[in-house]
Amino acid sequence: xPFFPIKSSLTLLSFALLSAAPAWSAPVVANQFVNDAVLxxxxxxxxxxxxxxLARDSKWxxxxxQSGGLxxxxxxxxxxxxxxxxxxxxxxxxxxxxxxxxxxDIWMIVASKEGADTPGKLEKQGKPSVLVQAGIHSGEIDxxxxxxxxxxxxxxxxKSALLDKVNLLFxxxxxxxxxxxxxxxxxxxxxxxVTMGWRTNARNLNLNRDYAxxxxxxxxxxxxxxxxxxxxxxxxxxxxxxxxxxxDVTFGYNLSQGLSPAAFAWxxxxxxxDIESALTRAGHIPGPLVFALDNSDMTRGMSLWSASPRYSNxxxxxxxxxxxxxxxxxxxxFKQRVLGTYVxxxxxxxxxxxxxxxxxxxxxxxxxxxxxxVTLTWKEALQPKGWDFKGIGYRVEKSPISGADVVRxxxxxxxxxxxxxxxxxxxxxxxxxxxxxxxxxxxxxxxAKLETHGIRYERLQQPQQxxxxxxxxxxxxxxxxxxxxxxxxxxxxxxxxxxTTLPVGTIKISxxxxxxxLAILLLxxxxxxxxxxxxxxxxxxTRTEYMEQYAVEPMAARMLAEDPxxxxxxDDALKDPDFAADPNARLRWFYEKSHYYDQEYLKYPVYRSx
Length: 610
Hints:
Residues 1-25 form the signal peptide. By secondary structure, the chain is an alpha+beta fold. It folds into 3 domains: 47-366, 3-Layer(aba) Sandwich (Aminopeptidase), CATH 3.40.630; 433-543 and 602-608, no CATH class; 549-592, no CATH class. Helix content is 31%, strand content 23%. It is built from 17 helices and 21 strands. It has helices at residues 5-17, 63-66, 75-87, 119-125, 142-156, 176-179, 217-229, 261-281, 312-319, 334-354, 356-367, 444-453, 516-523, 549-562, 564-573, 577-580, 583-592, and strands at residues 92-99, 105-111, 129-134, 167-171, 233-240, 249-252, 286-287, 302-304, 323-329, 373-375, 378-382, 387-398, 405-419, 421-427, 430-432, 436-439, 458-459, 464-478, 489-502, 507-510, 603-608. An 8-stranded mixed β-sheet has the order 1-2-4-3-5-9-6-7, with helices on both faces. A 6-stranded antiparallel β-sheet has the order 17-20-16-21-18-19, with helices on one face. Strands 8-14-11 form a 3-stranded mixed β-sheet, with no helix packed on it.
């Protein structure tokens, strides 16, 4: 018998009676949070999903419910409540992914009908698993409180059938250290909770820029968990900033032009209709991800974003793990956002359970497609289909404070019909798929990154002489300032055929593996999230040996006397007046063509087969 039979019945009744969004009400200035006075006015919200909440004094009310939907508990209170639930549960287990830099466990709750507590036990069930991650930006914590309620209702609220065909892996707080850097004055653009965590981790690094480079301890633990627990769907819960609009729950994933087109087809054709229907029935307004081209002029249109692998959804696209980015609207009240997230997570379990075979087929199709050409960068283009955008009215005024034009949102709903949509959907830089890459053994940090991602490789046990491709670089451009703890670099590239002997310990990475496309994006230097562009190969751009002018002069004279073709090339070079007028450039020309020149300078220590 369910622990809450009355509550479950009320929930079903509410969903039956309130099948549409509530009627419009005049926008008002809210007064629940310390920053309400500086935020735009909003409509008063009432939705069927409010029936999901228990009374404040209920024995199993979450801290969120106890506060009337205003507060989110700190790390200690969160885990104390979950520990109490897990202790009395036959479905739930708690496992640590490891410890954060400040020594806090990053906990994951495993929910399965069989009570599995290891990856092996979960795999034996043969059911798909949904990994839900809350608090990668710990101030954006809606997923934690929604997940706590959902776990409670699975255990004792009559919803255990959600686990009949699917498992739930729930990380309530990913960025645990930032979660405890909490204040009511964090995230001024967001309506609650009363106390919010910090955006970046304790080292001031943004975890949602760290998927490809995997520098942070937290991300290394998460990637290990993904490899070990092998989810079929990954959900990353955020709260957005930016413009005002009617949607309260927006979500998206990478586009069909990416590396996982079969997953896109399933997400867009099967998953999205189910989720949007469930949210609408519950009194929410779902929509795609919202990124305005110009926050002060809605008529300019919207940006359709396909993320690179530094972000969760871009990373999922590269490793063929269907990944959903939830961006709840920061100007909607905390309670509304949490309840919308609950509805979305509950329907996700239903849809994935019902669609398990189709989802698995999509993942397999993408994982073993092995396209001959892989696109590294994309150009923007006007999309054939516009967007009837459910926006909010605004006016532009001259500010007496800044002297600039500023947007004043009115809170009143406005439909902007057929706004243009710009998307990065046109291939720009592409490369052919090599059979394999070879990374020289001294680049230990790079090899460790590949291991963290779960990319398979083999080590050469004896030297091998091969004909391979090697990139050489020119005109390196370094970032003017640090970005996410790294000095990024880009350069012009040329690919040359070379005869080389690879030493013992060189690793060979075949691209005919499930993570082969991810390996390509990490190792091709023109990929924006390649390990080269993230600065892991920066030492190759440093010259460490030189030749004095007094030695170059006689050497150059001998070279000209002994090599007529070299003399002709030098004469041709002198036709460039800038070169001819630069003594250092002339001497460097000879040094670079001598046996003394550093043959590894500006050469990529990663080879690729042709």
